[in-house]
Task: structure prediction
Amino acid sequence: MILIALDPADTAALFHQIANHVRAAVVAGTLAPGARLPSSRALSAQLGVARGTVDAAYALLSGEGAVETRGGGGAARGTIVSRQVGARPEAPVQRSMLLAPAKAVPPAAPLPFRMGLPALDAFPRKLWSGLSVRAARAMQPNDLNYPDPAGYLPLRQAVAAYLGVSRGIACQPEQVLMTAGFQGALALVRHALLRPGDAVWVEDPGYQQAQQALEAGGTKLVPVRVDRDGMRVGSGIVAAPRAKMAMVTPTHQCPLGVSLSLPRRLALLAWAADAGAWVLEDDYDSEFRYTGHPPPALKSLDRADRVLFAGSFSKVLYPALRLGYLIVPEELSDAFQRASRMLTAGQPHLEQRIVATFMEQGHFARHLRRMRGLYADRRKALAASLTDALGDKVTIELEAGGMHLLARFPGAADDGVLVRRATKAGLSPTALSGLTMAHDCGQGLLLNFANLPVEAVEAAVQLLAEAVI
Result:
């Protein structure tokens, strides 16, 4: 006999209720493997249900492998608990999602001095939210289609107009491609122009993530030393005169902060024209300059059309936007649009639309002006606080622009050791020596000031001083 109580009020069918009771008894061990179950005739009489209802329950359990139905005559005939049940591993404990909901972990606040972050605390979130709502409400059915691989046309037009005014670059919207930040632009360049084994000049020290992305594509990196005038173009020509491309940060070199001098800019462009090579200009934070005027963009000096110009909204708006742009020579427009169609199929439409409106309505220009003033104050506060706290134990290299400064600590431990100590203190500086490939540029820490409010500078510097001394 099996103790089964059917519930007429239960919404489950009667055969499901019977199967559930038997299954529960098997799982609990009340019915052991090999145990004989009542015949369908006997159980139907016990429960007062049709025999077909019990047959349906046994069929369901048999399909699950919980019971076996044996034919033949005599004692061998009937339904038994499967002998395989005992060999199965125990079922994991099922926890109700209502009783133990997954806890959402909020993103951690960025640590002081972390490179690459703009002033997230000063971003106009309320304005941006309003533009986002209006853009979403204005969407039409066609806006839900696959986006243009080259990018949202009004945004490409806005970028072309902005670069014409701010960087002296004359380009058509057809030459502008919207990308997933600088890494997205680099992926397009690598796919469209480079082949495994091609030599590429890279600055030494330089931007490691870009170098790693090039290496992943099988290119041969040629490290070219950087000094006070930027990349030594002559050294690059000696090392690899037939290189396929040079990747440079001429306005504000990453990480030393120097600018590529005009003679070297002209020499680089002349080499590219003579060698049939390309130049990828990463203009990652040229918007932020605190003394004098920014030098002309390489692209604005390019008469042979060998320069590809990359910019990003990650530094001027916010990194989570993951949006940048690439300006390509007119002859490469079709090839790059094909590459974009193959690699990404375009960038999200709604975000592009919001950025386009942000630029068209003048908010972008006002935001940049505000950030220049804010960053100048934060830069000054950090430099002064470092000097007050460390005196002659620190040498600060302040360049004309950018979002970070370079602090050197004569006589201190290796900068890698300093970074580990600072990390334990809740800071996030970057070791200069870790960004070199073949040429020693000394020891030092890169300290981002853009995302560090003035009122938080003194406390952060005190932690850093304790880690350094």
